[in-house]
Design a protein that fits this description.
heterotetramer; B: alpha/beta
């Protein structure tokens, strides 16, 4: 069965390592913070100027001066630090963040990603996403494998305006965990109960399938 | 030190000299850390044809969104414009021009504008619509695009505390783009919650030195929250 | 949060991995704000062929000058090298190479190295020996030269206080190049006067976020003064 | 008579305006701080990271962590602010300093300045001087008009390696106050008791001399 939003977050959380500085995008990536494995500490970077983001506040803690990149009220973890936007993106662009998790509309076999604009529909803007994909070495894209109409989002070539070129190496969809290298998708894991055939059917770009494709351990 | 006293006593004085078709650089991220009274004054002045450089354009009826009501803004330079219906409407109708700029590039362009750096290279946006028409250059085998600095006729900034010399301290994530904006205005106007005497701020903990600040006014702030999010008790 | 505890317990551990022919970026201005113990450890290790990026090279017998005694430095990238006889001697004899870099350009090159900016333009040095061989480009009618970022295999930094996560606070003008150096090392090692627990530093007043810091050691400092100057009573 | 070091500083101080942020170079420029006119407040920028430099400390106030760009121990004035070197030169390069005063070996009719290096002799380095002359719009160079051997330092073309190209508009020497414009030196004032003829004799570059050349008011 396709992974739920929570299960996607759980699987991403398995990639966390102790001492990682992590930037989590809006949406599913944000949920990853709820599933950090025991014995592992990570520090969350929020690109509006906070390293060491804590949980959402309770009613008494709400502070209009303390928000995350999604404009939600948040708190600070112990040892947090605040800074300006230039410093925040120096950190991001300079490759100091260990892991970035973000959503996308499309990715392709060359590691291109499209995530900020659907021409003709509303243009929301790229926010910090272009800097994040350009600056990070270690990125996990989380997305649904295909649209509701069964159109693949894992393509030979992205059709939408790009957020970044050749920068994505790992994609976790609701159906599969996929690595991108040498101009191809490589199937690493499948969602529990999802068949390799279904993944192949819903993947437009060239997909390399090993003999044995393990089920994810959620 | 009268020559260094930046305090002005009215919003009119704070924004004196702002005229049609000028460029205004504004601090703030969403509605967090925005110079509410200075924005209100611009609306009150009804200055038109403005180019506004700011990460966002507020929301309908608050923040920079107020300047959309009477179509005072000709062009926005922003990274994110979502969640503002009036903005969308003026954009789609062609009344409002938008130069979408990645958030980190925008922050760096403001900093460069204040720091005498006319241009810099970044990998951000290479191979995307943002890179179109921009010079591409390779360093150590990777491709980068050239981005130019931004300066404003005015910068409008929100800080927490200031001393009368214009030394500024920001609070929490209300800092965001404000320090860079402060450096990039020909005239930099700052609205703060509290003004103290010189010597009362810790010199090691001042975020913006007063040399960048031309005018200072004490405001009162609504601090509207866009996404009020609480955890389960 | 064990994964974020940057504290090491010996200078040997602090500088582990430094080897011949590496590039070391050092904070400090003259003898002010220099990582005394880390420099002593480099001398003790007798690492040779180093390229050292630092505004100055200390004085005879103190600061980075100590690394000249056994000719450990192959090349200095500095803005100012005066007042050091051994330096002058090795420079004139050709044993030591020097790349003179304007002070502001040096600071900006370090910052760029940490910030993912491979190059930037500055008017500083245009039409001078510093500009020779560098790309010249005109912006708004003025000529600028392109300067490239600097990164180090190691950065050695001196701060005043740190928490165990490596969040740093500097004191007075001992800050100088240290914050930029901290961002530009593949491995950044920081020597401080005091280590406190996370949460003890004001999050709004931290100068260097711990994300840039790999190793942290508590040192003791001589703090030699180069020009002890007092006013008449 | 040629101006003394103190008189040079006094004359420069007359150019100060209330509210000026000023960077004073090492040597004679440093002395300018002693002659700030009454009723005028200026704030001194020290490029190693201090805005609001105070006088030298007394014995009890000496602090190894608080020095000026000449590495001398200093104090902070009320309302001073400390920052790092990148910020300091952002301020300088970005043109935020109102007046810069510095020494030189040579200047020429095109506003070029040489001040950091005498080939064959000791190379001390340019420190912050190249950034200061490139960043400031308002610069006063203070220097002796000629060497002890009577060789002019105000030239048609600088002979030493340049610190900056086309950036100097005002030079105060021990003999004269001179403006540089349109490729010529323009004599504005002469030191008390110094003749126009002597200034002409010791000026190599083309010098425009008005009918009346007032004496400096020291």
């Amino acid at each position: 069965m396709a992974l739920s939003r929570e299960q996607l977050a759980m699987r991403v959380a398995q990639e966390l390592q102790d001492g990682y500085y992590v930037n989590l995008g809006i949406g599913i990536p944000t949920l990853v913070a709820n599933y950090v494995p025991q014995g592992i500490d990570v520090m969350l970077q929020s690109e509006n100027g906070l390293l060491g983001m804590g949980p959402f506040p309770n009613e008494q803690e709400i502070d209009a001066d303390l928000i995350n990149a999604g404009k939600q009220t948040v708190t600070m973890a112990t040892g947090a630090v605040l800074f300006d936007s230039a410093e925040s993106f120096a950190m991001i662009r300079g490759g100091h963040v260990d892991l970035t998790v973000l959503g996308a509309f499309e990715v392709d076999v060359n590691g291109n990603i499209a995530s900020y604009m659907i021409p003709g529909k509303l243009v929301k803007g790229m926010g910090g996403a272009m800097d994040l994909v350009a600056g990070a070495d270690n990125i996990i894209v989380t997305m649904t494998h295909a649209s509701k109409h069964g159109e693949s989002k894992l393509l030979a070539n992205c059709t939408l305006p790009l957020t970044g070129q050749g920068c994505i190496k790992k994609v976790l969809t609701d159906l599969a965990f996929i690595e991108i290298k040498q101009g191809k998708f490589h199937l690493l894991e499948r969602a529990p109960g999802v068949s390799v055939e279904e993944i192949i059917k819903l993947t437009d770009g060239e997909l390399v399938v090993p003999e044995h494709v393990p089920e994810m351990n959620i | 030190m009268s020559g260094f006293n930046k305090v002005v006593n009215s919003y009119q004085e704070a924004m004196a000299g702002l005229s049609d078709d000028m460029t205004v650089i504004a601090g703030g991220f969403g509605l967090c850390g925005i110079p509410e009274g200075l924005i209100a004054e611009i609306r009150h002045k009804q200055t038109k044809g403005l180019t506004v450089v700011s990460n966002n354009c507020g929301v309908d009826n608050f923040g920079l969104g107020l300047l959309l009501i009477d179509k005072q803004i000709k062009k926005m330079v922003s990274s994110y414009v979502g969640e503002n219906a009036l903005f969308e409407k003026q954009l789609l109708s062609g009344e409002l021009e938008v130069e979408l700029t990645p958030q980190g590039t925008l922050a760096e362009k403001m900093r460069a504008g204040g720091a005498g750096i006319p241009a810099f290279y970044t990998a951000t946006g290479y191979g995307t619509p943002v890179g179109e028409g921009k010079e591409v250059r390779e360093f150590n085998g990777r491709k980068y695009i050239m981005e130019e600095a931004i300066q404003g006729d005015f910068a409008i900034v929100k800080a927490w505390k200031a001393d009368t010399f214009g030394n500024l301290v920001y609070r929490k994530t209300a800092r965001n783009f404000n320090p860079m904006a402060a450096t990039a205005g020909k005239i930099t106007v700052v609205e703060v919650e509290e003004i103290v005497q010189p010597g009362e701020l810790d010199p090691d903990a001042i975020h913006t030195p007063g040399i960048y600040v031309d005018r200072l006014i004490k405001g009162s702030f609504e601090k509207v929250i866009e996404q009020r999010t609480v955890r389960q008790a």
